[in-house]
Amino acid sequence: MTDRPTLEDIRRAPKVLLHDHLDGGVRPQTVVDLARAGGYRNLPAEDAEELRAWFTSAADSGSLERYLETFSHTVGVMQSEDALRRVAYECAEDLAADGVVYAEVRFAPELHTQTGLPLEKIVEAVVTGFAEGGREHGIRVGTLVTAMRHQARSMEIAELAVRYRDAGVVGFDIAGAEAGYPPTRHLDAFEYLQRENAHFTIHAGEGFGLPSIWQAIQWCGADRLGHGVRIVDDITDRDTDRPQLGRLAAYVRDKRIPLEMCPTSNLQTGAARSIAEHPIGLLRSLYFRVTVNTDNRLMSGTTLSEEFAKLVGAFDYDWDDLRWFTVNAMKSAFIGFDERLELINGVIKPGFDRLKWHGDRPLA
């Protein structure tokens, strides 16, 4: 018998993060500093704590326009190589301080060209920042380059992913509004990535439903699903002890397609009504390949440890559950098999075992 994990102890656990946006996790003080240095004059507040409160309020406002405005400010100050490198370095530092040992952090290079920076310089600045932060703080951070689904640069960004895959880029993603912008609009990019043996994930099943998930998997060949919460729409009798999986849900589970779930963010976007009602509870009980993530740490006012702690409170999860989520994430990462196995057997499992047991006694 073990005690329930506390937030303090969860922070000490070796964790893995697969879905985190670089421009959604900038430190408020860094936003203020970069705005002053770069002449950005549109911030809603110039004090870091006031700005932090504004970001959280805007994200929780229920207004899509105000929520999207938050990213205009973080992206607005990330328009130089120095700014991008600093934000990436601090991201690695912050994740390491939260006990994350491996992370894949995504960003859209096309959003950082306002001052004329070429895409290559943008990617190199971010990869460098992650590498420097990783070396100094004991974390490995892989970069995911993202194309915006409402734009027409996905092939260009996919080529970047392949060009820099031996220099820190581990995969490709598309993001943005799902409704009206199906992933099949970018089929040429996905087919190119498959031919190049490259990894990619697709935001699907968050703001839209099953068709988005179906297209991402069956047309585009996604390795993982960004969010994927709406897969529950293909599960009936959910409130019984015998839930029935439809063909798509069964396929996702059978093929062990990872779901990059972000509980707090999913509440903010309306994909779930409360943590206790979040589909992650059902999907975990049915043994889908569920992972736990942060999405946008600044806008959601969260960390990966806090996301785990909320799930512990809602579903009474124990250390075995948290280790299960973490191993799922490490199995689903876009680095090589040997590297994943080394982290699972050499870092994650021993780390959780130390927290679960102190000698022959349960953790107090």
Describe the structure.
Its cofactor is Zn(2+). Catalyzes the hydrolytic deamination of adenosine and 2-deoxyadenosine. Keywords: Hydrolase, Metal-binding, Nucleotide metabolism, Zinc. By secondary structure, the protein is an alpha/beta fold. The chain folds into two domains: 7-26 and 87-355, Metal-dependent hydrolases (TIM Barrel), CATH 3.20.20; 31-77, no CATH class. It contains 16 helices and twelve strands. The protein is globular.
Map the helices and strands.
Elements: H1 7-12, E1 15-21, H2 28-38, H3 48-59, H4 64-76, H5 81-97, E2 100-107, H6 119-137, E3 140-148, H7 154-163, E4 169-175, H8 187-195, E5 200-204, H9 210-219, E6 224-227, E7 235-236, E8 244-245, H10 247-254, E9 259-261, H11 263-268, H12 280-285, E10 290-292, H13 297-300, H14 304-315, H15 319-331, H16 337-356, E11 357-358, E12 361-362
Parallel strand pairs: 1-2, 2-3, 3-4, 4-5, 5-6, 6-9, 9-10
Antiparallel strand pairs: 7-8, 11-12
Helix pairs in contact: 2-3, 5-6, 7-8, 15-16
